């Protein structure tokens, strides 16, 4: 298994992961592609896949780096982390988080944060097993 940085050619694969991660949301293909392109161009963002040498994709990870007063410095926010349902428990999620953690350390981040939808109980267990601690409730306000 290796990590593959996302490219524009990978958009269709990323789009399928995005739709699965937030299956309660509705996505417009072209609008999502525009966001994906901006992520790839943003030096404060990252996006990558877990793949096999034969080109089989097993997961996707996306995040951003930003300054926070909470950590008094740079923080890495993992906003998307998903593996294929049939691949769960095989270590791909760990590999994706390990890579995000490596990138965060290289950037000088003081922490990695993420949030996870309330219904995603299995994912919560995975994050806690990895070493994350519950630290807050997440809220959003659509504009």
Automatic annotation (TrEMBL):
Domain N-acetyltransferase residues, every copy: 1-143
Signal peptide feature range: none
One protein family per Pfam: Acetyltransf_1
SUPFAM superfamilies to which the protein is assigned, alphabetical: Acyl-CoA N-acyltransferases (Nat)
Protein name: GNAT family N-acetyltransferase
């Amino acid at each position: 298994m290796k990590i593959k940085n996302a490219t524009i050619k990978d958009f269709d694969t990323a789009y399928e992961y995005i739709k699965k991660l937030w299956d309660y949301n509705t996505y417009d293909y072209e609008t999502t592609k525009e966001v994906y392109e901006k992520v790839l161009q943003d030096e404060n963002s990252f996006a990558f896949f877990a793949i096999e040498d034969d080109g089989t994709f097993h997961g996707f990870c996306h995040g951003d780096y930003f300054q926070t007063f909470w950590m008094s410095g740079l923080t890495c926010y993992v906003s998307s982390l998903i593996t294929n349902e049939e691949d769960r428990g095989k270590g791909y999620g760990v590999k994706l988080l390990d890579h995000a953690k490596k990138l965060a350390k290289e950037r000088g981040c003081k922490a990695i944060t993420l949030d996870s939808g309330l219904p995603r109980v299995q994912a919560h267990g995975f994050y806690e097993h990895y070493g994350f601690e519950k630290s807050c409730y997440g809220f959003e306000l659509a504009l």
